[in-house]
Amino acid sequence: MTTFLRMDGRLPGELRTFETTWDPMCFALSSVIVRTGRTAVLCSISIEDGVPKWRSGKGKGWLSAEYRLLPGSTPQRQRRELLKLSGRTQEIQRLIGRSLRAVVDMSELGEKTLLIDCDVIQADAGTRTAAITGSWLALHKAFERLLKQGELIKNPLRRQVAAVSVGLVEGCRLLDLDYKEDSHADVDLNVVMDSDGCFLEVQGTAEGAPFSRKDLDALMDLAQLGLRDLHIAQTKALNNSA
Questions:
Q1: Is the C-alpha dihedral spanning 160, 9, 177, 218 positive or negative?
Q2: In this structure, is residue 8 part of a structural domain?
Q3: Which three-class secondary structure state does DSSP give residue 152?
Q4: Domain span at residue 48?
Q5: Could you tell me the pTM of the whole model?
Q6: Least confident residue range of 23-32, 92-101, 208-217
Q7: Fewest 10 Å CB contacts: which of 14, 114, 196, 234?
Q8: What letter does residue 77 receive in the DSSP assignment?
Q9: CA–CA distance from 207 to each of 186, 215, 240 (Å)?
């Protein structure tokens, strides 16, 4: 395995710096800005009475996610997606929603809908993984507040969830790719894992040459190590929140 010199000086298996800013939005149920290196995503939680019609009458809640790249979040201005969402945006929204629903007991919500908004302030790759990791933090804080307000009897959140990217760049296995690394990757994977060590979703593709089962196993092992560190970082962020 070759050695790839990372621009920020990180080791191949090292995460970007993980930082959080709590409650930048005073009217949301909860909100947090998550920064992974130069990528920054604002995650906020709102709650509404009622559920989609197909779920009505079952006594269970629902969770839905929206994701957007804000204008100015990339070197070339992103146009706002208004009437029609791109396929990429729809895919990421569904990924975020699936990842969070997997660790929430909807029967504890009653017929209410949780709305997660993920707005990318700055994009240096890994926006979808940062959105999932940050959304879990915002969700945890939202449930804490709903319990305190007497809106919930039991916490619906069953486990932690975080996400990270891994890839093969010039023959080197890298964790938590930035934009330069991602744009040159021969293989790129996004991995979502809960705190039990179970994978909730794996998205991967060969951008260049096909990759072997050995490479896939090694990348998954690398992702698992990084995700365990992210779970620890989430716990520290919660402990440092107001």
A1: negative
A2: no
A3: coil
A4: 18-239
A5: 0.95
A6: 208-217
A7: 196
A8: P
A9: 5, 14, 39
The answer as to whether 4 is a domain residue is no
Separation CA 190–CA 172 (nearest Å): 17
Specify the higher pLDDT residue, 239 or 3. Answer: 239
Which residue do the tokens 């999932």 mark? Answer: 132
Instruction: List, for residues 147-193, the tens digit of each pLDDT value.
Output: 999 999 999 999 999 999 999 998 899 999 999 999 999 999 999 99
Least confident of 5-9, 114-118, 187-191: 5-9
Are the C-beta atoms of 187 and 165 separated by less than 8 Å? Answer: no
- Number of structural domains found in the chain: 1
How far apart CA 58 and CA 20 sit, in angstroms, is 36
CATH number for 40: 3.30.230.70
Q: Which two tokens stand for residue 195?
A: 């705190």
> Would 5 be classed as within a structural domain?
no
Q: Which of 54, 163, 160, 69 is nearest to 113 (CA)?
A: 54
Measured CA to CA, the distance from residue 137 to residue 18 in angstroms comes to 13
The answer to the question of residue 6 being in a domain is: no
Q: Are 128 and 190 contacting, i.e. CB atoms less than 8 angstroms apart?
A: yes
| Residue 203, both tokens | 């998205």
Token pair, residue 89, equals 């945006």
- State how far the Cα of 76 lies from the Cα of 79, in Å rounded to an integer: 9
Q: Is the dihedral of CA 179, 182, 183, 189 positive or negative?
A: negative
H or E element, residue 215: helix 213-239
